[in-house]
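My main concern about presentation is that the manuscript never shows what a single data entry looks like. The format is easy to grasp once an entry is in front of the reader. For illustration, here is how one protein appears when written out as sequence plus structure tokens:
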Amino acid sequence: MKQFRMLMVAAALSAGVTGCSVFDWMVYKIDIPQGNFIEQNQVEKLRIGMNREQVEFVLGRPVLRDSFASDTWYYVYQFKNGRTNELTRKELVVHFADDAVVSVDGDYTLSDNFNTPLQGGRP
């Protein structure tokens, strides 16, 4: 009888622990944004020949400045949805030569005027 009671207690505990996952949808989980959130209209302001100060004014400070390739700035944004665990990642890489933008790569679309240098030096 004592063994049967212990077996029932063990079964009840294991059922109780596994039952918690059924109510997982009721638990609030926060959204987790990380990095530089960049909008498309900011990227459209970029022009070839802009200096580092102008790029920083338009996009903000980069998440990463490569210590071995100081002419490359990385803007990375990652968003994890707390409810669905869906992960969204966007990246923008700005390449400089002689302190001027020479190319931009990443998940954003450049404007048609990107290859036209700025007039008067203002973004």
